[in-house]
Please model this.
Amino acid sequence: GQEADAARLLADAAAPNGIRGAAAEYLGAVRHPPSLDTLVAATKDADPAVAAGAIRGLGRFGGETARKTLT
Model:
């Protein structure tokens, strides 16, 4: 589905960073549990657009893991 495609894009370092950041935001907005670890890891991505997208995505995802990562 769309969530799996977005997760693949986020994990693909060769994908454009704007796309990766948008994928991270999407995965958080739809609260896709299999992507939680990928979102957490993406908060430390070397590209600020990807890291920012992951941070926003985790904010939308919510929950204890997201809170611990963001604080």
